[in-house]
Amino acid sequence: MIKAIINGQQVEVARGTSILDAAKLTNVKIPVLCKHADLEATSACGICIVKVKGSAKMLRACSTLVEEGMEVITHDPEIVAVRRTVLELILSNHPKDCLVCARNQDCELQKLAADFGIRDEYFPSIVNSRQHKYDDSTKTIVIEGSKCILCGRCINVCQNHQNVWALSFLSRGINTKLSPAGEIELAESPCVKCGQCSNHCPVGALVEHDDTQKVWDGLRDADKYPVVQIAPAVRVAIGEAFGYPAGANLTKKLYAALKKLGFKAVFDTNFSADVTIMEEAGEFVKKLTSKPQELPLITSCCPAWVDFLEKYHGGMVDNFSTCKSPQEIMGVLSKTYFPAKEKLDPSKIFMVSIMPCTAKKYEISRGDDMFSSGYQDIDVSITTRELARMLKQAGIDFEKLEDAEADSILGHYTGAGTIFGATGGVMEAAVRTAYYMVTGNEMPSIELKEVRGLKGIKDAELDVAGSKIRIAVAHGLANVENIVNQVAEAKAAGKEPPYHFIEVMACEGGCVGGGGQPYGVTNELRKKRAAGLYEDDRQQKERCSHLNPQVQLIYKEFAETPNSEIAHKYFHNKYKKRSAYVK
Amino acid sequence: MSNSSNEELNSIVDKWKDVKGSLVMMLHAVQDKFGYVPRSAAMEISSRAKIPLAKIYEVLTFYHFFKLTAPAKHQIAVCTGTACYLKGSQELIKALETELGVSAGQTTADGRFSVTALRCLGCCVLAPVMTVNGKIHGHVKPADIPSILREISKGEEQNAQ
Amino acid sequence: MPNKISKKQTIPSKNDVNPAQNTEKLAQILQQFEQNYKKIDKRITICGDSGCLAQGSQKVYDAFKTELAKTGIGFCLEITPSCYENSLYLCKSGCQGFCAQGPLVNVEGTLYTKVRAEDVPEIIETTLRQGKPVERLLYVNPKTGKRCGGTKDIPFYQKQTRVLLADCGRLNPEDINEYIANGGYSALQKALNIGPEGVIAEMKASGLRGRGGGGFPTWLKWENTRKQPGGEKYMICNADEGDPGAYMDRSLLEGNPHAVIEGMIIAGLAIGAQKGIFYIRAEYPIAAQRVQKGIDACRKLGLLGENIFNSGFNYELEIRYGAGAFVCGEETALIASLEGSRGMPRPKPPFPSQSGLWGKPSAINNVETLANVPYIISKGGKWFAGFGTEKSPGTKVFAMTGKSKNSGLIEIALGMPVKDIVYEIGGGPLKGDKVKAVQTGGPSGGVISGENMEMPITYESLQQIGSIMGSGGFIVMDETDCMVDIAKFYLDFCVDESCGKCAPCRIGGYQMLQILKRITDGQGEAGDIDRLQTVATAMQKASLCGLGQTAPNPVMSTLRYFRHEYEEHINKKHCPTGRCAKLVGFEIIKTSCVGCGACKRACPAQCISGELRSPHSIDPNKCIKCGQCYAACKFNAVRRG
Predict the structure, then answer these.
(1) Which of A307, B48, C388, C573 could form a disulfide with A192 if both were Cys (CB 3.0 to 4.6 A apart)?
(2) ipTM above 0.85, yes or no
(3) What CATH number should be reported for the domain holding residue A138?
(4) Taking a contact as any Cβ pair under 8 Å apart, which residues of chain B between 70 and 89 contact chain A?
């Protein structure tokens, strides 16, 4: 521990603590702009400057570590004046069209401007002195270059946390711009649409492609039969948009809200996650017992991860589970099994998915397999953030809603389905069922603690009926490299793979930390959201997918057995190696 | 890209790829060879040296020495160091603009001439200084520009004959 | 391919370095060289620095070769055992300093100026054969009208204290033997004998401060790096000279590369590094070639590599190129560049001495700083401290350019009054009798105005008046130079060179530039000076690195001493110097106009009328003040004002 004096008050902090964090001990929240609580400081904006005794210039609180005996002043009229000028400079290079911005009232720059009481434009606007990139080529993530304040968060996330390297800063000085490599569009870049850039952007420079109007149009269309599904991670995060604490499980309020919005049937992606587990665990058990040379099996329910592996490790697509993601399985069921059962015209079904994810927008049309019902299986995919906006537009008083149930036919889920939303959840759910498939018995202790939590790579060795099964779980694409390389090396050397079963989620924390989730994510938030899901798991009567009576019914009435021919037709899909750059 | 230039490119990359932090050196070598850094070369570096293309472009576009397009046949550069500025380098740029119709940083439509504003060449005593295809011209006056350009054209004709 | 240090080697701790042994080799080289050199009858030293080369010194050199061959006088181009008795030595040196008078040719102490290839036969005939000077090629002292035989008679040289530059303009930069014969690498030997602590103590005694601009005590930087734990450390030479209008570093590298190399080896020894890196501006290919040649020669002689002089000291040097980014002069940006990334600075602390290249302790010194090191170690810190002032000891090289009569590379003992530099060495202004101001420190510096000309030039005095020492740009400005325009020039430079990472520098600089552009375009407004000051403060306080923190200096400094010029631009829409084209009028002087029509053709507003071969005139109501006519006129018949 080291001692320092902040604003005349002695503080004691651990070595490595920034002035920004240390100041909180004196009840001072130093204003910041480029620093995101989830990310390393980039030291770009110059808002969090403080005075440190002995330094002529002001130092950045975000990136300056407290040193023994340091004397810091975090605010005085001079500091505030400099902060104000820096803010005014940033504003002079930022459009003032806040009313028509995706981040209106949810913008970190706007909030600072309000806090500083900016009332005029002291510096003339220079936004139009240069050309700016506007890029909606992915129909998933939109780049509005004019709004970029060059904080560097998205670049840090895209390059260092996700290892995707779609985004970069090109040129320099005032001409610095956020762009893929060269004069190309985002859709021509290695972008995997994970949306972490948009999730961390402080302003409206990177936002999700808004599909809410499509949903309203579908709901308005009298000819359509609108149905909806909600993904596991949505229920524990949407509350943040309505003043609930992070991690509050609002499943039943969500059902009610969606019905109020006008959906005629509300399904739960947790249910189709249970189906995914039946297929994927079945696939794993089959390979383990009869084709071990085809292992490891790698999960494929995360579309950003699928995109990443196809582009960067195309040689390994055969290791992917061919099983579709829960979103897509629900999509196909909603346009096959559901209308057949309900005597509806499948062509009229309008399927909307509420996802914590921007890449799911891409997934709904990523290949012919996404049209296996004969129609596009999912019509529109929107994010948690978009749903929150729709609920506000409708004026639905979330807090006062009475709980409702899902429409039972595709709505009943087990604890295994709900934990899909957290890193390690798919693995845990799959193991619960795979164990049963191999041994015929339920696992003695179904909670697989080794694969829970936020450690970047988690691995474990399980004893299943005397044979050792090695599993690994990675989240945050930068953590994948190591595992993939180990597998590739073993493969090349003809050796036994280091793991039999690998789960990968592109986003840190898994879907609870998805790119389409409410802003301001931190590890603390990820933990709370995940805790909400694990609690949901504990609350369920059935905690293994194979025990889901509705799932059993699906197989009985529709898909016969896991990995049957018909299951393959509707529940599975293919992958292909692609180059990272289109041009 | 032709096979031989591909081989040259490979040898450049192989020479540097295992040396830590050598991207800038690699790009220098590529530009030495081709006169600029073509996208195909950047992609080749990316895959051979396992450096993300985005990183290569970040570096390429940060440093003004690197060029992304093929150079013009004749490269005219005006030094804009302080001594040259005081002695009228801006007027030289204007005169070139009048004669060639392009401003600093541009290439004529026929690809024959490019005009660049250079950082100090360190020949301050000759200010204002201009280089034509690397050759230094000192104490240049705006009125000299037409004749300097004529000389280039003349040289071209002679070469053609 | 840079040599990589073998992994097997043991990394020497400070106690592992032993005194130099096997030093006979140097003595042998020295003896051999002297033996060879005895055979030389006369030495012709032709300046081969970029400045003289651009003025045609290569042609002069070639003419000597062909003409000497014709005359049958034996000559050699390098000193080797095969040189004939009584032969001539035709040597290409580095910068001899008096660049404005180049190409320079020194024949046994007689300095010929502005030599053309056509003059060579006469030099051979008159000087070499008859032993008489070629009078017409001697420099004329403008004060006395007398011709000067050698540098000692030329006022430009008289007030200088040439230490670094003496060898730079004298030795053959590509001949390591000559360097050794002149005492080269004996400083390295001595450094090994006195050990790292001894070296640092000597540097401390010298008081040498960083010559790159900051003026940080060199010994302290070395000490800070040395005391960091860990075996892997780096010594870096910053040769990415970027100050527009300064070329000391290029000239030193081209003219005396071995001094810098020897400095780098000694510095590496002092801080405990095993590797040193030259970061050289890509626009300086000759400098890079000479340094590479020097490194190769050292390696061959065992002055680099493993176990140097059997002392247990292992050290390698390699070259990396910059690529056109001024910000890479900033230490952390330079490190980022060496790591193969964009040259983006990062916050300090941690300082490079704590965490530098690849996160390892690193010391970064500028070329001139390092070139001083062998001299200091050889002659002693006290000797060096004997020059200059107490707080700013030693000599400093400046590139004197702009509107002085003499321009070129000069070296003075610090503490010399500015007016002596300007009027005695520089010979006063090119036109008129008054120098308006001198700019030092380049884009990070400021102006020394007329009222401060008496001031002795030191780190402290420059800082006091709002400028800095900088790397050595010394730009003389006369009454025709507009101070607002010059501030705009430097700011434009900084805006172009800003890395773009931090908002205060990126946007602040750009906004300041817009204001200055408005002012010089006649669109200045009442609050503009306040606005400039507000941004400047934010940039100085909140920019991440030195570039942004100092970028407002040229503006603040000119505002301090020439505020009235700003006010005249803003309030009266008038530029007193006539430099700002939009704030002046153009008029054709009837008596000078020959009626060639060049202005008429150049005028984009078609406001010039006049018949061929008779005086033209400008319609002031239609004139858009673009200045094209002024630029087009070959007869100085267009007046600007």
Answers:
(1) A307
(2) yes
(3) 3.30.70.20
(4) none
